[in-house]
Write a structure and sequence with these properties.
The structure holds 2 protein chains of 2 kinds. Chain A is mainly beta. In chain A, 9% of the residues lie in helices and 48% in strands. Chain A is built from 12 helices and 42 strands. In chain A, the strands form 9 sheets. Chain A has a 22-stranded antiparallel beta barrel. In chain A, a hairpin with a 2-residue loop joins β1 (39-42) and β2. Chain A starts with 30 loop residues before the first helix and ends with a strand. The model of chain A is unreliable at 1-36 (pLDDT under 50). In chain B, β5 (304-309) and β6 (312-317) form a beta hairpin. The mean pLDDT of chain B is 91. In chain B, 44% of the residues lie in helices and 7% in strands. The termini of chain B are far apart. In chain B, 49% of the residues are buried. Classes of the chains: A mainly beta, B mainly alpha. Chains A and B meet through α6, α10, β18, β19 and β23 of A and α1, β1, α2, α5 and α7 of B. β23 of chain A pairs antiparallel with β1 of chain B.
Chain lengths: 894, 445
């Protein structure tokens, strides 16, 4: 968990009737009507919720706020059926992995398309490499969000054509409303600490165990080791007096997060405005790490004439990331786990010891590295979405949008000369600048009319995007003093880099929605899309869709749809055979080909079918949405493996296939409704079966992939425990017999990293001004490699080890144990099942208690306290862990 | 007013309707298309790209230099080190693996040679020689890692590596199956190609003066001698090596990988790999048994140092210690001392003992050692021992034992690996076997 601070922010909501509407539509509807007729934003328009033909889940500002969540992604976590959301790391300000209805692709990116006030955000990295996993949506102040529309089915998403295959999330921001001006201020503060940590050996156990490793390996080496340990003063047996340092305490801390936000909105007869400012600072649970953000937003719309409205939604944000270095010996997450516990980070004089005397890859002092080195990034985002809306006829509107997005990134990396790594070069500095310039324009005409029993709404338009990324930077070594931190203070320049990439996309689209007797609904879309990323011969593609709904009775609706969407989430130049510069030798410029290219490379196309039923009974006491889907992706954007004797390892191709089938269930109940007491529940259940249907060249298995298995499934050795006779690690071979030396063909495929079943159960109990919200989340059917465990059970004598290695290893013939005997250099296959962990859990993850007061001339005053206790995430290695937190906040609205 | 709005609307609509393909045209600024690399300058850049690849630590920048000594008897893992432990223990499948990198280089070289063949006869003569010599060097390493030496096959298994001399283009005129899914050539074919390439390169490199960072006639002759020696063709070896020696003007290094400050491998360098008091990766120590062979008066002892590491006394080398900056050190590909030792060895095999002894004594004298007292029959043993000391940590030891069909000696307490052991030949990478069904793996894997 990262941004506890944001919590209260999201609570500002309460514009009362702020449900989603077209950015420029005039809120002249009567209040009651708006309440009843919830409007859902879909691509290039909006429809009434009751008229939806696809699978779209909608969140209003109020709903986001009532979750008490900090980040909008986390507000959605567990609450959207069919969409699996998880933070990629626990680092403050880092991104989320959002997986719509199973992975549809093998090699191409799998993240959804974000559309904020019409601005398209694909999940391209905005970092020169110093900062990792930065959230591309971190510029957005969650308090500004008015609605979030999560489009799950292909038919509804396909109006976005080429980039919609991974799902679409449409966000609109607040616009202000006519009438009295409103002011809202919110502030909150939270504390957070590490949620889970494994149990490790203490100094004494470690020394004793490692001596035993050597004793069982070579008497000569054992004597040398013993002498060394005695020399450190660990007693005559080499271990009984060995001290212990808790490296967890050296690396981690209990940290705070804070957030402040002020918004002012209002409007007159012809003009509406919304202004907001926000400051958020989140200190990470690893020392010296943090994320801070400041945002400013100005949304204005003005009616120039009856037939022309102009609007401008602009935001500026500045984010500062302070991250630990992720390179292996400097990574504090691994440092806390691996550093030998017998050595302290500082000597008696209180000075850091750069390297512990036993050396090894984790001999580096990660506490020192963390405190002296710098690894920060500053990014600024200016995003401005401007439009002219012409009301040509009563029923015909034309909207012309012009969007510019600028992102400037400055990243800096400093390795202090006092650290072990820095001492090699008397320090190192790297400084990088990156800018992304994006221009987007949408020209959309919409028409709606009613002919007797038939109502029609039609939309047609064009969209064009041009995105350029430019990066430059330099690195240098050699500092006279550790007080010098910048390039010009260094003695020797090492490298200068500069890079550029550009992509463009263009599309034409049309949609027609027809409704007959308000009972039979049909919607059809067509998009013709082109992208520069593809081969010269195949840059254009057609994406059709059709969906229909039948309102069997007033509150029961049957929906079905079929749509084609695309995925273009690949590098800007993947399809070209290009020769990359920078491969220099002896001062002479060199070139090397980057890819064999493919002039026929084209869209990955996802064909999906969705059938669902929505119901709403007894005055919303029971409401449900159930959807069944089949998504088939063929001709994947696939890195076809070719023999490396061609000088290339892979070739970009359209090959292979993936199939997802699943069921999404969303059940909302209003259990008890008394005069001032209300209890509501929400059950959210998603089942997804993901499998590869084809790979390449008729092969049933290649690399980590196998036909019939999930995309995230990996081959692994089935571990059979320690041999009872000898204590050596054993494995099952393909016949089920036990072997000491398994071969790659003995591996079987794991369950996959994506849970097959996941969901949440949420309850909200309100009594007078009090409200208690608690959410259970659960998942099952997945397992994940915890590769650090291979190191923590490894026997190379230079890292700390798991406590269970000390307690539960094989010690004498006849022992039936999982872990093998202590012996130097005895290693278990790093991809053995022993290192896989189930990710199943059922846990109360979120609780929020609030009290709202409406008195003293205030519109409202809300105070709340929220707790978050995340699941134990399994990360591959060295990834910033999740924190648990408690946050308190207050919101005042005038 | 309304009219103005309509005019505005019309302009807006016309201006932004995407209509043609050129709308998707994009620029590249750090990469060039194929048509820009077909000239002399382009070919030269491609060849520089190959040197750049050779510099990688997983290739000639470190591992291919270190592992033959770790898998022989010159090095052992430093206390507490784990990086090369499995190679050291001869754990099956954990061995030298240069397949992908070597073929990436060969692909670039084939491309360079293909473009050169389209140019005028005399244009780019030296570049052609350089590309051929580099290709021969890559096939030499591939042949030594993935097969046994020509004179020492076991059970007549004579498959070497796929022999590829043409570039790969993803074009539709030939099916991928036809051009990409290659078979392994025989040991004889690969060594034949190596010799042919070197001979041709020698004739092209005449008068070109790029040594020692780039290919030269001297390097070509020396490599030719080395290859003949590996093939057991003593006469041809002796002749080529004598020719090479005649070209010498005394410089020690004939061909070396040069690293500029920007290319410094730092933590991944050879200096970092060898154990030291400074803060490198400290993965490898010198085997004490090697130190026992070195005479106290031997001037080469200066290249070794004894230090305390992890509470123990261990030997290390200063051969790769950077002059100015940590890790910054050139890596020799061929040295004059090797040429001399190769020649002496070839002569000894030819039983030209007096000639061999004369050269060997001269060599020993340079090292500060007295003339050898070994008998003619013992001479070869002395030569190999001198070779072990002189060329230690330069990527020779394992190959020297292997090429002569000798058992692979290991530091105590590890057992000797018999020459016939299957692990003496590296397996074809399993992902390569998985995709290319035309490849047959080496025996017993």
């Amino acid at each position: 968990m990262k941004r506890v601070g944001l919590l209260l922010l999201t609570a500002i909501a309460s514009y009362g009737y702020g449900f989603a509407q077209e950015p420029d539509s005039k809120a002249t509807d009567t209040l009651s009507q708006t309440r009843l007729e919830e409007i859902v934003v879909v691509g290039y328009g909006a429809v009434k919720k009751t008229d939806l033909t696809g699978a779209v889940q909608n969140f209003s500002a109020n709903e986001v706020a009532s979750t008490g969540e900090v980040e909008f992604e986390r507000a959605l976590q567990g609450r959207v059926s069919g969409v699996y959301i998880a933070p990629t790391t626990g680092s403050p300000g880092s991104s989320y992995s959002i997986n719509f209805r199973g992975r549809g692709s093998i090699n191409a990116g799998g993240q959804p398309l974000f559309i904020v006030d019409g601005v398209v955000f694909s999940n391209a990295s905005r970092s020169s490499g110093v900062i990792s996993d930065a959230n591309v949506m971190s510029w957005l102040n969650p308090a500004d969000i008015e609605t979030i529309s999560v489009i799950k089915d292909g038919a509804t998403a396909s109006i976005y054509g080429s980039e919609a295959a991974n799902g679409v999330i449409i966000i609109t921001t607040k616009k202000g409303s006519y009438g009295k001006s409103r002011i809202s201020f919110t502030s909150n503060v939270g504390v957070q600490k590490l949620a889970h940590k494994p149990s490790l050996m203490n100094g004494r156990e470690w020394a004793e165990y490692t001596l035993l490793e050597y004793k069982n390996y070579s008497p000569a080496l054992y004597q040398k080791r013993l002498a060394a340990y005695q020399g450190y003063g660990w007693g005559s047996d080499g271990y009984s007096l060995a001290p212990t340092t808790s490296w967890y305490k050296e690396i981690y801390r209990t940290s705070t997060a804070q957030n402040y936000s002020l918004t002012i909105s209002g409007g007159g007869y012809k003009t509406r405005f919304y202004i907001s400012g926000n400051y958020n600072k989140n200190d990470g649970i690893i020392k010296h790490t943090s994320f801070s953000r400041g945002t400013l937003r100005l949304n204005v719309s003005h009616e120039v004439a009856k037939y022309l409205t102009v609007s401008s939604f602009s935001s500026f944000s500045r984010n500062i990331f302070n991250q630990p270095s992720s390179s292996a010996p400097a990574n504090p997450v691994r440092g806390a786990l691996f550093t030998i516990p017998t050595f302290a980070p500082k000597n008696a004089e209180g000075e850091y010891i750069a390297m512990n005397p036993l050396g090894g890859i984790y001999g580096y002092n990660t506490a020192q590295i963390l405190s002296l080195n710098e690894n920060y990034g500053k990014n600024s985002n200016l995003i401005s979405s401007n439009s002219l809306t012409f009301k040509i006829l009563d029923k015909l509107e034309f909207k012309s949008s012009y969007i510019v997005g600028y992102t400037w990134v400055n990243e800096h990396q400093y390795i202090d000369p006092r650290t072990a790594i820095g001492s090699r070069t008397s320090g190192m500095v790297g400084s990088f600048a990156l800018d992304v310039t994006k221009f987007q324009t949408d020209q959309v005409a919409s028409y709606s009319d009613t002919f007797g029993i038939l109502s029609i709404a039609a939309t047609a338009g064009a969209s064009y995007i041009d995105s350029k990324t430019h990066i430059s930077g330099a690195s240098a070594i050699g500092f006279a003093s550790p007080d010098l931190h910048l390039l010009s203070g260094a003695s020797t320049p090492v490298a200068a880099v500069e890079n550029y990439s550009q992509w463009k996309s263009a599309g034409l689209f049309a949609r027609i929605n027809a409704s007959c007797l308000h009972k039979y609904l049909i919607s059809a879309t067509l998009r013709y899309d082109g992208s520069s990323k593809f081969g010269e011969d195949r840059q254009w593609g057609l994406f059709p869709s059709v969906s229909a709904a039948w309102k069997i009775v007033k509150n029961l609706k049957l929906r079905a749809g079929y749509g084609v969407t695309g995925n273009a989430n690949i590098g800007a130049y993947s399809a070209k055979r290009l020769y990359e510069g920078g491969h220099n030798y002896a001062g002479i410029a060199g070139l090397r080909p980057t890819s064999p290219g493919n002039t026929k490379l084209t869209w990955e196309k996802n064909r999906s079918f969705n059938i669902g039923v929505s119901g709403n009974f007894w005055n919303s006491r029971l409401a449900f949405d159930v959807d069944y889907y089949i998504g088939k992706t063929k001709d994947l954007l696939y890195e076809r493996v070719i023999p490396s004797t061609t000088q290339f390892n892979t070739m970009p191709s359209n090959m292979g296939g993936v199939k997802n089938t699943g069921l999404d269930i969303l059940l909302n109940t209003n259990n008890l409704q008394l005069r001032d007491f209300n209890w509501r529940s929400s059950l959210n259940l998603s089942y997804c079966h993901n499998k590869i249907t084809a790979l390449q060249d008729g092969l049933s298995q290649i690399g980590d992939y196998r036909v019939g298995k999930p995309v995230s499934s990996k081959p692994l050795y089935k571990y059979a425990g320690a041999d009872p006779k000898t204590g050596m690690p054993t494995y099952y071979d393909k016949t089920g017999a036990i072997t000491l030396t398994p071969s790659p063909t003995d591996r079987y495929f794991s369950k996959g990293e994506d849970p097959r079943l996941f969901g949440s159960f949420e309850n909200t109990i309100a009594w007078r001004g009090f409200s208690l919200n608690f959410l259970f989340r659960f998942q099952s059917g997945a397992e994940k490699l915890w590769s650090d465990k291979a190191v923590l059970t490894g026997q190379t004598g230079n890292t700390n080890l798991l406590k269970e290695v000390y307690d539960n290893r094989w010690t004498k013939p006849g022992d039936i144990r999982q872990l093998p005997k202590a012996q130097y250099a005895l290693q278990i296959e790093p991809t053995a099942s022993l290192f896989y962990k189930s990710t199943n859990f059922f846990r109360l993850t979120n609780v929020c208690l609030s009290y709202t007061l409406k008195a003293y001339g205030l519109r409202s005053l809300k105070i709340y306290i929220a707790a978050y206790n995340p699941e134990e995430a399994v990360y591959e290695s060295g990834v910033y862990p999740l924190a648990k937190s408690i946050t308190m906040g207050v919101t005042i609205q005038l | 007013m309304k009219k103005i709005v309509y005019i505005l609307l019309l302009i807006v609509m016309l201006g932004f309707l995407p209509c043609c393909n050129s709308i998707l045209e994009v620029k590249t600024k750090n990469a060039v298309p194929q048509e820009k690399v077909v000239d002399i300058e382009g070919v030269k850049s491609l060849i520089m790209g190959v040197y750049d690849l050779m510099q990688e630590p997983e290739f000639l920048g470190r591992d291919l230099i270190l592992l033959p000594d770790i898998m022989g008897d010159n090095c052992r893992p430093a206390p507490g080190a784990s990086k090369y432990l499995q190679e050291y223990n001869f754990t099956p499948r954990h061995t030298i693996n240069i397949w992908k990198r070597a073929y990436k280089s060969i692909g670039c070289l084939n491309e360079a040679l293909y473009y050169l063949s389209k140019l005028e006869e005399n244009e780019g003569k030296a570049l052609r020689g350089e590309a051929l010599l580099l290709r021969a060097l890559h096939y030499f390493y591939l042949a030594m890692v993935y097969a046994r030496a020509p004179e020492h096959l076991t059970n007549n298994f004579d498959l070497c590596v796929p022999l590829i001399t043409l570039p790969f283009f993803n074009s539709s005129d030939k099916s991928l199956q036809q051009v990409a899914f290659v078979k392994r050539a025989s040991v004889e074919q690969v060594w034949g190609q190596i010799i042919e390439d070197i001979k041709l390169s020698a004739s092209l490199l005449e008068g070109c003066n790029n040594a020692p960072f780039r290919a030269s006639l001297f390097a070509a002759k020396a490599l030719l001698g080395r290859c003949y020696l590996y093939m057991g063709k003593w006469k041809e070896a002796a002749r080529a090596l004598e020719e090479a020696e005649a070209l010498s003007s005394g410089e020690e290094v004939l061909w070396q990988l040069h690293f500029t400050t920007a290319e410094n491998l730092g933590a991944s360098s050879l200096e970092s790999a060898f154990v030291s008091e400074s803060n490198g990766e400290n993965q490898v120590a010198v085997n004490e048994e090697l130190m026992a062979l070195i005479n106290p008066s031997d001037i080469r002892l200066k290249k070794f140092k004894k230090i305390i590491f992890a509470g123990e006394y261990v030997w290390s080398t200063t051969k790769f210690t950077g002059n100015t900056t940590f890790g910054l050190c050139d890596i020799p590909l061929i040295r004059l001392a090797e040429v001399k030792l190769n020649k002496i060895e070839a002569l000894a095999h030819l039983k030209e003992y007096s000639k061999a002894r004369l050269s060997l004594d001269a060599f020993l004298k340079k090292c500060g050692l007295p003339p050898t007292e070994a008998s003619d029959t013992e001479l070869l043993e002395v030569i190999l021992e001198q070779r072990r000391i002189e060329l230690a940590f330069e990527g020779h030891r394992f190959f020297d034992l292997k090429r002569l069909g000798l058992n692979i000696l290991r530091p105590s307490p590890l057992p000797t690996i018999p020459y016939s052991d299957y692990r003496v030949v590296a397996p074809i990478p399993s992902d390569e076997l998985e995709i290319n069904k035309n490849l047959i793996d080496n025996p017993e894997y």
